[in-house]
Amino acid sequence: MHPIVGIPACARLVVHGQLRHDAPARYATAVLGGAGAVPIMIPPMGEASLAVLDRLDGLLLPGSPSNVHPSHYDGGDSLTPEHHDLERDATTLRLIPEALARGMPLLAICRGIQELNVALGGTLHQKVHEVSDRMDHRPGPGTIEEKYAPRHLVFLSGQLARIVGSTKILVNSLHGQAIDTLAPGLVVEAHAPDNTIEGVWVERARGFALGVQWHPEWGYADDSASLALFRAFGAACVAYRSGLRKAA
């Protein structure tokens, strides 16, 4: 039986002011095709969503147009007040420590790596492109394919380099925020040429626990590094599921 991976959804106001819970389909596609796991969406219902972890074998934190609210890391006033999702914050920032405590495999992407850092006690640059000596990591104009095209190198080390099989890869870049103060217990395993943190590993995790700032789910099947990430995540989910069965 395939492992099951939960993907926390965003809360968004849409047509006629109705609230929707959603996430881009490409994350589920990569989980199924790359990790070999069955994806399910987790509605952003705050603490109540913790109950779903009993049924999961892995957790994938997807990217989002929204930003983690700075009140969660004493970041002062919001510099992006129109780009927040408090329902998602209330859900993911609770799911992360609980999943890690269980030893559940965790893959955090874009907003996800920022949530991981905040959940463990770190802080964020609200506008990394306004920080001295940093690049503009936001996508430029063009089609969606152009926005997700490779933009810059990242330099890898540790577990991430081992999984990918290289110490540098070319990645896309679609973020306005980034890690500032690294959370205790996180180890930097990827950085951009401007030293922006692009990948982290949870040092004392009991299993796979990795965050990346880029989007490996985009075109994952045609990129060896992205496919390797999802394959490793999927293998960890299988091992976690097997461990639970043995424990039972």
Structure characterization notes:
- By secondary structure, the chain is α/β, with parallel strands linked by helices.
- It has 6 helices and 13 strands.
- It has helices spanning 25-33, 86-102, 111-119, 144-147, 158-164, 224-247; strands at 4-8, 10-13, 19-22, 38-42, 58-61, 106-109, 124-125, 152-156, 168-171, 178-179, 186-191, 197-202, 209-212.
- The strands form 3 sheets. It has a 9-stranded mixed sheet, with helices on both faces.
- The radius of gyration is 17 Å and the shape is globular.
- The two termini are 16 Å apart.
Average of the residue pLDDT scores: 96
Which runs of at least 5 residues are low in confidence (pLDDT < 50)?
none
Based on CA atoms alone, the radius of gyration comes out at 17 Å
Tally of separate helices:
6
Q: Let me know the largest β-sheet.
A: 9 strands, mixed
Percent of sequence in beta strands = 15-25%
Question: Which series of helices and strands comes N to C?
Answer: EEEHEEHEHEHEHEEEEEH
Secondary-structure content class:
alpha/beta
Helix amount: 25-40%
Q: Order of strands side by side in the largest beta sheet?
A: 4-1-5-6-13-12-11-8-9
Q: How far apart, in Å, are the first and last alpha carbons? A: 16 Å
Strand segment tally? 13
Bulk shape: globular
